[in-house]
Amino acid sequence: MRNIRLVVEYDGTGLHGWQRQLNGATVQQHLEEGLAQLLTHEVKVIGASRTDAGVHARGQVALFRTERTIPLHGVRRGLNSKLPRQIAVREATEVDDAFHPRFSATSKHYRYTLLTRADRSPLWRDRAWHFSDPIDLEAMRAGAAHLIGQHDFAAFRASGCAAKTTTRRVDEITITATPDLLTVDVRGNAFLRNMVRIIVGTLTEVGTGDRQPIQVAEILASHDRTLAGLTAPPQGLELMEVRYDGPRP
């Protein structure tokens, strides 16, 4: 039995997220159906991150098992020929039985993009949150500094989050601005449901002056989701990379 790891890139627009759903097509469904055609047997695909509807990825990691002897380049090319245009496999490698896309991961990198110019952009409508209010970058960075380290992030998770523990480690939050775009790169060992989007929503409220940077620390200590900011829209979020080479969570 072979264990094959895939690195998958996708545009989440129009998809109902990663995980199979009853109400619409998902990335997992398309991969499983494509592999079933290619390998002529049913396939279960496990992913590293259960991205939500509308969220994108360039570094999602997935795993499936097969006894078929198709070479790895044949798996990649053959599967890509059966996937819709918004999903593509970038890499296919063989791994040992101990590997698990989610439980073996040591860190993840998400990027959130905001379009900060006054006018909307058709080109960025499905890739960024149009946020035209003036933003104080230094205030956002000061607020973000309170989130670095290992903390209980209960205040920054969606109400439907089923995680057994809310303690997570955030290693870095980098906020970068260009004339039209602002990106928030968040790296950590693992993330709760909507955690990055709630962090971004809260930091934008700091950036507009609706909150003070110190309030981020107060929200974190409260463990109360109702005290944190809004959940930023899904289209600005992208899973950039999942790593397996650092300290375990």
Quick tags:
29% strand; 249 residues; alpha+beta; 10 strands
**Gap from first CA to last CA:** 28 Å
Low-confidence stretches: none
> How many H/I helices?
5
Regarding quaternary structure, what we see is single chain
Backbone CA Rg: 19 Å
Mean pLDDT reading: 96
Order of helices and strands: EHEEHEEEHEEEHHE
User: How does the helix and strand content classify structurally?
Assistant: alpha+beta
Question: Shape, please?
Answer: globular
How many strands?
A: 10
Query: Which bin fits the share of residues in helices?
Result: 10-25%
- Main β sheet profile: 10 strands, mixed
Share in β-strands:
25-35%
Give a description of the structure.
By secondary structure, the protein is an alpha+beta fold. The chain is built from five helices and ten strands. The protein has helices at 27-39, 72-80, 137-145, 195-207, 214-222; strands at 2-10, 46-47, 56-66, 87-95, 107-115, 129-130, 149-152, 167-177, 181-188, 237-243. Strands 1, 2, 3, 4, 5, 6, 7, 8, 9 and 10 form a ten-stranded mixed β-sheet that branches. β2 and β3 (56-66) form a beta hairpin. α3 packs across α4. The radius of gyration is 19 Å and the shape is globular. The mean pLDDT is 96.
Can you give me a brief rundown of this structure?
By secondary structure, the chain is α+β, with helices and mostly antiparallel strands. The protein is 21% helix and 29% strand. It is built from 5 helices and 10 strands.
